[in-house]
Amino acid sequence: MRVSVKWLSEYLDLSGIKPVDLADQITLTGIEVDDVSLPAVTLEKVVVGEVLTAEKMPDSDHLKATMVEVGEEEPVSIVCGAPNVKVGQKVIVALPGVKLPNGLKIKKSKLRGVKSNGMICSLQELGFSDSVVPKKAEEGIYILPEDAKIGHSVLPYIGLDDAYIELDITPNRADALSMRGVGYEVGAILSQKPSFPEVTVTEDKEDKVENYISVSVEDEKDAPVYKMRVIKNLKVNESPMWLQRKLMNVGIRPIDTVVDVTNYIMLEYGQPLHAFDYDALESKRIDVRRAHKNESLVTLDDQTRKLNQDNLVITNGGVPVALAGVMGGLNTHVTEDTQTVALEAALFESSVIRKTAQSLNLRSESSSRFEKGLNTATIEEALDHAAQLIADLGSGQVVSGVAKVEAIQPKDKKVTLAIDKINQALGTELVMDEVVQLMDRLGFETETSTLTLTVTVPPRRWDIAIEADIIEEVARMYGYNRLPSTLPKSESIPGELTPKQRRIRETQRFMEGAGLSQTISYALTTNEKAKAFSRHEGEPVSLDWPMSEEHQALRMSLLSGLLDNVQYNVARQRKSVSFYEIGRVFHADSNKKRPDELTHLAGAMTGSRIEANWQENEQNVDFYTAKGILEEWFILMGIEEEISYAPTSAYEAFHPGRTAEIIWKNNVVGLVGQLHPLLAEERDLKETYLFEIDVDALLDVEKDTLIHVPTPKYPGTSRDIAFVVDEAVLNDSILSVMKQNGGKALKTIKLFDLYQGQNIEDNKKSMAYNLVYQNPEATLKEEEVTKDFEMLKTALVETFHAEIR
Hints:
Phenylalanyl-tRNA Synthetase, Chain B, domain 1; elongated; RNA-binding; catalytic activity, acting on a protein; Fdx_antiC-bd; phenylalanine-tRNA ligase activity
């Protein structure tokens, strides 16, 4: 909210306080001030000038040599490029030495041999945004009124002799989204009572509003209050300078008298209004209802809006003519030919307006105020004020009466609380009279007894309803800076990590030690990416009101986000990338209101595992790189003996011959494998290897206590075995059979050779293992080892039809 100090001075005496000091006091009472601007400080030598001559320069198609009277001994010569400069105009002149808001410093100069001792300025050059400059001055200079005094400062004529305070209004203080609301707030700060001019309407008693319009509301919950006045015999023209100045300086473009008045009243009262061209309504009836299926409306921005049944619309009894509380329709907007205006003031259900604005991506100053709430006590007063002002500025007449639907009446709220409760909450020692004075500054009436206080809150402060709200108001007015500072009193309890949190930190340290860098991806993504790589069936959890198409569903896997990060880095010339992430994924459950949240661990690697150097050749990451990292992590978690791997080709996103399911306690808990080459090609990636594990259960497993085992006193022995088996036989299966049949003395098994080729049949492979036997309590006998070794060979032959070599 941009507050004009000069406008505020119409309600309060601000003569004894500087704008910067006022802003500081506003901040101390709880409304944050973003900025204080003082335009007059840097624009002292910008004056009113009158164009005496304007001759086209011979070598230019747009420049004119002008002589301008600026109140000095002689007129000054200024070269001007504006297309609308003419003799006799009062214009804005920046004299040499002025530094404009855009950084340009005005100096005496020559253009094509012609002296230029200043600059005839447009509003944009004085810092006004293009969006607020009146249309007639968009492409050229701004013409001042005829009564502007030559040589005097131009700032009062364009409102820049003012100071502006930018307020950052929080949703609970929407009462400060109006000049009157800010007036009450500043009045409370300065212990003044704001004075607002009385509104009186001069009506044409012989012409009744019933002859023009009737209003109805389909559901009074959607529009508890809907009122309309009619102004006839209007002439729509340009607004007076005072009105244009007020609008431009708070960021609103002047259009015409009718539109400008509705904006002005919205700023003053916080009450949005909308004006219809009565004749364009083609009806004497206004109905407020929800939109019908497949209805549409062309709004004022010339966009066709497809409506749904959650949208609230204003209709002429048949078709929509406005989106309630958001934007009017193009078919009934006021034009320069409008002679009769139907003026609307209403209270709409905030949630309906919010949903409409979000669904159509159509936010406006009006919708933001309807969403946050309105002062129900001034709805008709704002309507009356606007109607009379439109009539006065357009030489029109206000028709007698108000067409209305009024399901609620503005009421004061009473809140009762004990003085002890205020002091206990704030740590103060206030007495009843002090609290009463603070409430009086706010304009709240009070009733007191010995220990309790009853506060009557007017409708303009709809944010106050309970005891805590009154306590907050006491704290604001008393001064947060005056409240005593105390430390909380409680027993100190040392914090510690839960076992699961410790496991997660161990995992982070391990993964980073293995060469992977941690990433954090956004949980919201597209529907397509949310489902990709997930082992869980079903659709992702979608948001009803997503921020964008890229953030509309909750992820079901971490791998999509990881791959986006890998692709981003590879596209920026990083050849080798290794990332991991620990995060939540979300699975919908029809039996629950909320989705299940599961913790996953995922990794993605591409490029080199070892860079080429003088000692080693380059080695690229492969399946066994990813699998090896996981195996070491399972050892860290203490579950390596319970993990197994099973090849799979069931996942479309993975390479069918280089992917395995990770199995723990007969349940599939994850995947490790290569990204499918076609997907890698789509992302411009080389061979990329991925893994993802559901780690919730794994992190909760209790680790066995580590027990130190002394070095054996007795020597061990070893055996090597080589055999040929079918190519499909897995190393895990062979290890399992060896462990079950190798005897008690078998301690370690290590695969040291794998061969396919010459002298080996097709679809066969040769595997060679080293077996280590040891008895920690006695020296092994040869016959014991031989017996166990023979049993192992027999089991391999029977189980896998192995050919011992």
